[in-house]
TrEMBL record, chains A, B, C, D, E:
GO cellular component: carboxysome
PANTHER family: BACTERIAL MICROCOMPARTMENT SHELL VERTEX PROTEIN EUTN (PTHR36539:SF1), ETHANOLAMINE UTILIZATION PROTEIN EUTN (PTHR36539)
Chief subcellular location: other
Naturally occurring in which organism (per UniProt): Romboutsia lituseburensis DSM 797
CDD domains assigned: EutN_CcmL
Protein name: Ethanolamine utilization protein EutN
Length: 90, 90, 90, 90, 90
């Protein structure tokens, strides 16, 4: 899983049936200093995340599992809202 | 999932049976400022996308699910046509 | 899926049983201007591709599906021979 | 699988049910000279790893297998604590 | 699949049960000029590979298939020992 920030939404009327009813959230991966790090992707929300929130996201089969849409075209999902990040470095 | 732009097509007469009947669309991944970002790939179309359209694409098992060809050699599929991208940044 | 060029072969006598009988083709990924782009990989041939041919290759479960070796150690396969690439760019 | 170092933890009260009960460890991939190499990720612990320990981590379905949570949203897991790394180079 | 070189081993007493009995080989990916290319990873050996040998390795479900440990936490495996690499370039 990775840390990300919800930075926007995508609207698509013509889409695969399995995406209907799922909020398509643009999620920007972050490093653990909360800096943008990597390419943003579209993740379906499964925990009620809002714009600007720090989230945990997962990809692949794990994302379909989180969305409880096992045979869907989903391959990224938001699965947690971060309360706290504690990093110890040497 | 990711945002992409359909920039072309590939024709291959000699191909795996499971690709027969699927339109092979060259899809260029974009960032959320709609700039080219990353390597183009071949995705099968599942929503009637045309050249130049802004689309949502998915990869892996999710792509086979979208194409309803679960045992196929497909590993990327177009699953939505973008109406709107709303990005909020700090 | 991606576009690639067959640039060589690998011979391995001691190998996993599931690879026996499959031609191991060194496949160089290309961009859509047919330039080398990315790391070459070993793909099993499923459509009779020859050295120097422009091919379509796929990865992961899709590759095992194409080879009809569902429980094998294959994770890349050539699944088409390119006739034509048409790219429209703005 | 890869070598990593546990450098922190993430706390998320609102999260996917399948993550409940799993320690979310921030794991920094290392190269084999134990230098930081690549993006840190969140892995669930399955072997009792502590902060600062050198670990083996795995990703994808392998991670769900290690956590014995086959239908979960887990896609990275710590699966070993390194005793020794022996590297021979020409 | 990819070409790699076995450059070392990892020892971990405390590890996931499914890794018990598997030799954990540090495998350095190579390009087809046999130069180091990419991040080394830990692959389980399935063909009796030794230190310094040129090998074929695979990742993901393919690796669990090769190791015949389908529900394990393995996600990389050595599946062949290279006899010969023939590369034709224009």
């Amino acid at each position: 899983m990775q840390i990300g920030k919800v930075i926007g939404t995508v609207v698509a009327t013509r889409k695969d049936d399995s995406l209907v009813g799922s909020k398509l959230m643009i999620t920007q991966p972050l490093n653990f200093k909360s800096e943008f790090d990597g390419k943003p992707l579209i993740a379906v929300d499964t925990v009620g995340a809002g714009i600007g929130e720090l989230v945990i996201f997962t990809e692949g089969t794990a994302a379909r599992n989180a969305a409880k849409k096992y045979d869907s075209s989903i391959n990224a999902a938001i699965v947690g809202i971060v309360d706290n990040i504690d990093v110890w470095e040497d």
